[in-house]
Amino acid sequence: MCLTALQVQATELIFCYEDKTAATLFLSEGSDVPIDDPDALLEVIQRLDNKLAEVSIRYVRKPWQACLSDLRSNKVNAVIAAYRPERTAFGQYPLTKSQQPDSTRALSKFSSCLIGSNKFHKQWQSREVFQTKAFTLAIPRGYKLNKTLAQEPFFIQHTASVAKALELIERGVADASIGLCQIGSHKVASHYDSTTLKTIYPPVAAEQGYLLFSKEFYQQHQSLSQRIWRVLADQDNAKLYVDHLNKANQVASTDRY
Fold this sequence. Notes:
The chain is built from nine helices and ten strands. By secondary structure, it is α+β, with helices and mostly antiparallel strands. The strands form three sheets. Strands 3, 4, 5, 8, 9 and 10 form a six-stranded antiparallel sheet that branches. The chain has a two-stranded parallel sheet with strand order 1-2. It is elongated, with a radius of gyration of 20 Å. This is Amino acid ABC transporter substrate-binding protein.
């Protein structure tokens, strides 16, 4: 009887996350959160789901742009996204009293590194001597370089996916690409690394990932939304995500050879 009552009272939250089979490994609008394995998010969100009896999460998997479009039209209630001022017109981020994004309630900090050949590693260390676009950087379509990378000597070649970008490096057509390498303070065991490819630390780009609610959901469930952000902030999302991702990457590395 009590369980039934709790189930009836639970608020449904429709969470949309990226369909990796229908989109690139990077979110496709601007320099966003580099979610390398969308399935790894599920452990983080499911942990939240198990902790809160007052919420029942329904999972929807679509291409990133469809998730964002559905959030705008309130067909879904939440997505994971980096902060972009234009998204505040239709979405609600956790904010400070000064109306700035509250990084203490972010899901985590997602960092990306350059991935390149052994030759590129050596050349990259002495890149200051280059005055022109000396290196070809292969990146998925829709991914935009941050200000720091935009000032580096790169010629940009767009690809359909990170896998295609790495293929170009191995064929000698491109020099480097970009991939997720660290979450919070935890380094990710990269399945990109091989005898010919290596990740270059430190990271060259970083984004805070937030649980972004639709305006309508937040307005109807403000206290619940605030509680969800607090619970997410209290759990070690970076470790949960990295542990899951490292296991997946170990399997991928085994399959690769």
